[in-house]
Each structure stands twice: as structure tokens, then as C-alpha cells.
Specification:
The longest helix is centred in the last third of the chain and has 12 residues. The strands form two sheets. Strands 2-3-4-5-6 form a five-stranded mixed beta sheet. Strands 1-7 form a two-stranded antiparallel sheet. It is α+β, with helices and mostly antiparallel strands. It is elongated and about 85 Å long. It has one domain. It contains four helices and seven strands.
Length: 161
């Protein structure tokens, strides 16, 4: 069984702590529906820091590969994961309009028991495209997969015979 790291988010950020590791895709259950298989791992570095404004922040760096399903050909699409997220820690009543307008930093509630892998999985889910597709010309669609509907006029011509 994989041990899930749990941190006190405010203490972690204020002390500038850092944890890192690898998590197998099989340990991220909410990802399972999006993947063609559970192969692969994601490496992570999770750091606490204090922003220029003195507010506690968490920085999450993800690196790895996962196998998604291409929405054109339904074959496996190897999707590289390279993500850096900066998250501002706020108390429950502290979130205001100015935080919402900031596109650089997302705000999350500060928690005494923050599950690092749950946060990692959430950020990963938000970064994956809604409809992943191979680049143009890379899909492996065979001629058998493409069925062109018969023209209604061709059907009528067949009825005349």
C-alpha cells in the first residue's frame, strides 16, 4: 500500500518545507476513467513558500506521462505531464474578489491535514484536456473505421433495379 503524505499546509508554507516523490497512476483513482491503462508514474515536488505580499503559498511541480484516449481514433495517446502550480493558502473567510481576479495564483483553503496526493490529483485533472487528440495526421484511423454513409440517391438508384 502506498503511503499518502499529509501536511499542515500553513506550517508547511511558513517553514519553507519541501517534499518530493513519485506516485503510480494506479494510486490516483479519479484519473482511472480518463486513462487507457494505469501504467506510468508522476514525479512531484511540493514546496512551501511565502509570497512577496507575505501570504503563504504552495508550489506544486509535476512531471511524468500518462496514457489518455484520443477522441478521434480512440487509441492510446501518450500525454506528457509538465505542470507548475502556485496555490495561495487562505482561511475560510479570507477569499475575496481580488483573489479571484489573479490569474497567476489560485487560492485554496488552508488545512491542518492536507492530503498532498489528493491535491496533486486535483491539479492533474484540471490540467488534462477535456477532449485529448493526437496531432493532425497522427491518428491511426484505418479505412475500415471510416464508413461513409451512402448517398440517398444511390439508395434510390438501387431500388430502381
Amino acid at each position: 500500500m502506498f503511503t499518502r503524505p499529509i501536511i499542515d499546509s500553513l506550517d508547511f508554507a511558513r517553514r519553507g518545507m519541501e517534499i518530493s516523490g513519485e506516485v503510480p497512476m494506479a494510486e490516483l483513482p479519479r484519473m482511472a476513467d480518463l486513462l487507457t491503462d494505469l501504467a506510468g508514474k508522476v514525479s512531484y515536488v511540493f514546496r512551501g513558500l511565502i509570497g512577496r505580499d507575505g501570504k503563504p503559498l504552495l508550489e506544486l511541480k509535476l512531471d511524468g506521462v500518462c496514457n489518455l484516449r484520443c477522441q478521434r481514433c480512440l487509441k492510446t495517446l501518450t500525454y506528457p505531464i509538465e505542470l507548475v502550480s502556485i496555490l495561495r493558502l487562505v482561511s475560510e473567510g479570507e477569499l475575496d474578489e481580488s483573489d479571484i481576479d489573479d490569474d497567476e495564483v489560485d487560492s485554496i483553503p488552508a488545512e491542518k491535514r492536507l492530503d498532498v496526493l489528493a491535491l496533486l490529483e486535483e491539479e492533474l485533472l484540471l490540467s488534462i484536456p477535456i477532449a485529448p487528440k493526437h496531432e493532425n495526421g497522427e491518428c491511426q484511423i484505418t479505412a475500415e473505421c471510416i464508413t461513409r454513409p451512402m448517398s440517398p440517391f444511390a439508395i434510390l438508384a438501387g431500388l430502381k433495379k
